[in-house]
Amino acid sequence: MDMIFEHEIPQGSRLYFGKSAELKREIETYAAKLLSQEGFEEIVTPFFSFHQHQQVDEKSLLRFSDKANRLVSLRADSTYDVVRLISRRLGRSTDHKKWFYIQPIFRYPSFEFYQIGAELIGEKNISLSVKIVSDLLRHFQCESYLQISHIAIPKIISSMLDIPLEVLKAGKLEALLSHKEPWLNALATLESIKKIDEVIEIVPKELKLPLEEMKELALNCGHFNVILAPLFYAKMRYYETLFFRFISNNKTLSSGGEYTFEEENSSGFGIYSDTLIETLMNREIK
Predict the structure, then answer these.
(1) What's the burial of 134, exposed, middle or buried (CB within 10 Å: 0-12/13-18/19+)?
(2) 3-class DSSP state for residue 2?
């Protein structure tokens, strides 16, 4: 067994001190104020959950048994716990639909991540989420670009051309472009909102609506630096149609999108506090 020194902490855990602790508190305080002004109420969910296996790969869970020998997990995801608790446990005492949380999640074997998240239950319009994240990043003078994607597009193309989704997830464009479809090449090179109408004109009818939805979000999101990524595919746990990422120096600061819970269309986002703090700290060092 390796010797563990008194000053060591488990790999993957977090330690904030000095400037990083100050930044963490400042970000969380501003986020809470901003979200409250936008009509959100705060919720703090338990660290322990019976239901995490329904939303997260069981291999990533930190699990143990309670006194009744039931499996319990450390919270590895906040979204569905928040939505489920509001809908099923608190629904009789409140009809509020906009909630935010500032809390960590934990993943096997010893990873700890801090998040600022919000859920808009019954609200499908994710431009509201984009504007909030954009406002927060602008407040901290954090330059980023907004990537807009639509999960339905790679799924439709996968079905139409009989291409495994894993190929799209890996970004192997050569597998797509080998089909030599002009509309496919147009999709692969589409980044600017200025070109989207031309692409909508030539794609198969099944792809027109998802592209129109991407266009509408890009035009109404309020963020000036927008990149369209219609072929980007990431297997999300719950986002089903439109989703977005804020990216700085190739690191994702925030992501969000639309999802359905118990047949109710909703939306939400998460801001990855640790990545944002690291980005701001590196900027000051430079």
Answers:
(1) buried
(2) coil
**Residue 177 β-bridge partners:** none
Residue given tokens 């963490």 in the structure block: 24
Tokens encoding 221: 């999101």
Other CB atoms within a 10 A radius of the CB of residue 41 amount to 13
With beta carbons less than 8 A apart as the criterion, state whether 146 and 257 touch: no
For residues 45-70, average pLDDT: 86
3-class SS of residue 72:
strand
Q: CA of 47: how far to CAs of 9, 29, 53, 55, 81, in Å?
A: 20, 21, 14, 15, 10
**pLDDT value of position 247:** 97
Looking at the predicted structure, is the pLDDT value of residue 172 above 80? no
| pLDDT score, position 145 | 95
Dist CA 61 CA 173 (whole Å): 33
- Percent of the chain at pLDDT exceeding 90: 57
Amino acid identity, position 149: S
Residue 250 in tokens: 């190739």
**Per-residue pLDDT tens digits for 225-246:** 999 999 998 777 778 899 999 9
What's at 126, amino acid-wise?
Answer: I
Which residues partner with 226 through β-bridges? 146
273 vs 152, 215, 247, CA distance in Å? 29, 29, 13
